[in-house]
Amino acid sequence: MSHADHAAPATGAEGHYRALERLYASAPVNAKFASALQIPGEGRSRLTFTVSPEDYHAAGAAHGTIYFKMLDDAAFYAANTLATDRFLLTTSFNLHFTKPVREGTVIAEGRWVSGRRRVFVAEARLVDAEGDEIGRGTGTFMRSRIALSSLPGYASDG
């Protein structure tokens, strides 16, 4: 890809993916976390999260709320790649903890499973810096009445 390709505004699916990345970055809650979203393609997402002692429970490992946040966000954004008009809402989420995590980088990989109209199903997995899976989850997401184009983070580059 040439330098000129990077300067051109993204359109179509790529434009939607870049707008979802901006939407994630613009959410006030995400200012509390050292995290970044990448949408590599339809039905997929990748979140890079840095876990720190501020995220710990009393026994010195990341609290389950951090696992849920990472898994829900990754599954949500994987599903929302298929909904180009509406913001999705999480309606249920099941998660499984397989290993405690302390400080370090965690990758949350999201993958769309099924549904394209009203209800979407997506799953996510968490992988720690050693490459071990530390958690997994599956969520259902419903199309809301909120137009993506009405959300400032989605609608603009700035």
Automatic annotation (TrEMBL):
Domain Thioesterase: 60-133
GO MF term (any one): acyl-CoA hydrolase activity
SUPFAM superfamilies associated with the record: Thioesterase/thiol ester dehydrase-isomerase
Protein name according to UniProt: Phenylacetic acid degradation-related protein
Gene3D superfamilies given in the database record: Hotdog Thioesterase
InterPro entries: HotDog_dom_sf, PAAI_dom, Thioestr_dom
One Pfam family of this chain: 4HBT
Transmembrane segments: none
Organism: Erythrobacter dokdonensis DSW-74
Keywords: Hydrolase
